[in-house]
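Revision sheet: structure tokens.
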Amino acid sequence: MSNETNIPVLETLVYVPYIDENGQLPEQFQGKIGVYAIFDREKVLQFVGYSRDVYLSLKQHLVRQTQKCYWIKIQTIEKPNRTILESIEQAWIKENGSLPLGNGDSKGEWTNPINVKVIMTPEEQEKYQNPLNDEVAQMKILKNVARRVEADILAVLETRGCQTQIRFNPKLKEEGLLDLK
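Predicted:
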């Protein structure tokens, strides 16, 4: 736990595997308020964030950035306090010496639903932009692209041994967005 006067030094916190030996995300953080730092396979800091439910946020980041989420360091607090959370977040970024990529220009890739329109294949783009398509046809194309991207994400997570159930919001797929339910 942390309080306002005691900001933990990121370097001193223990690395927690993003996916444990049983294929689960760190369930001990379900419903916990806190600040977290996400590291890649080589333990290079990728993103620092805070949340009212650290577990749910970690799950979202994992599907959005599957190749950049291997290790985490977490500091929980008892009561929601944005000032404390932001202070810890800023202290960790400063301690890192540079802005993590996920907190800079690519922050949206970490914090927003996946927009499948920007990762369509040329064939999918051609179908989608066909002037003969109406809204329903375009929606079906977006849904199919979203399903393809979802399958790719789930395949990567499977190769990493992830056993945590991942469910995407089916309604958002029609809009060409992938986000967890």
